[in-house]
Amino acid sequence: MILKPYERLVARRYLLPGKGEGFIFLVASISLVAVMLGVAALVIVMSVMNGFRAELFDKITGLNGHAVVQGVNGRLPGWQEVVAQARATPGVTSALPLVEQPLAATYNGRAEAVLVRGMRVADIRANPAIRGGVVAGDLNAVTAGSGRIAIGSRLAEALGATVGSDVSLFSPQGQSTPFGTVPRIVSYQVGAIFEVGVYDFDKQYVVMPIEDAQTLLLMGDTVGMIELQTADADRVGEYLRPLARQVGGRAVVLDWRGMNAQLFEALAVERVAMFTVLSIIILVAVFNILSSLIMLVRAKTRDIAILRTMGATRGSMMRVFVTVGTAIGALGTVAGLGLGFVFLVYRQSVVNFVQLVTGQNLWDPQIRYLTELPSKTDPVEVVVIALMALGFSFLATLYPAWKAASTDPVQVLRYE
Q1: 310-321 pLDDT, tens per residue?
Q2: Is the domain of 42 the same as that of 94?
């Protein structure tokens, strides 16, 4: 919107407090602060929600892949052929055989439910989630036949185990005797402790060479599943449709959406709900802009009438008051973006400070899945939030500006 020099002068004058207009200035300042807080809240919450989803997705797919080929009854004989078929499928970037079984672990009288995962030694060391999360010990010590395993950090805390501790794994699948099946209890030494960052994984996972897992579970040369990575996680169904037909009857193909459908759908619904609810804050701020402009128009009725008699047009009055209201919204939007980005940079420090002051644990990994507050800012969302705040602010100026433009100078100045 292009303003004439005198229109800019009048708009600038109305943005500053005049004599006896302190209350109007206070309401306008409150409007600016409200817009700032609304924009900041939207940026912070949407960035945290995006970061939570992205971080959770990376952690989950880092250990479980984009999809798995699950053997019927937990067994997949002839898995080498399935691996070859998967690697030959367009869009599949890797296919890794796995053995996975829920068991129980005991140490010094403590017992915990665990999820034993058997992987090839090279795959264990190449997995970024495990390799990059080692907090104690050495993954190189976990080799086939060495009797060493790697366990999650939370599991180590729950058992009280450290590197070098002998942890016993209890398997109900044992040898048959005349008196029934005798469970297997095998002791392994902790060779490494890792932290993925997802509480459930760190609390349950026990990683060992696939040969040791096959021996523990009496599986022979079979595996339980094959973990698949694809070129694009969002197109995993399209990529794996041909493979699902090839392995039909002896295995099923499950992608990350099916395995974690409830979790990611809940995140999507919560994301939309939070955006809608927090947008109301900006809407409330816009009503403050509306009320402050209405009061400003009433206070400046005589000035408007004089400007009209001096040749100012209705359009000029419209532009002046639209500029005043939009400027308040724009300043609040810019300040809100700055406040939001500052909060995101120091988000974990803010959470720690609030926890220290209140004495409450605001980020419990058992509930939040992740150990730290994540963040991922989407530039498109930031632009949408800014445009929404500016758009609402502009709409709020139309009625007061129209009232100002409709002022009849004859009626106002009749008794002057």
Answers
A1: 777 888 888 888
A2: no
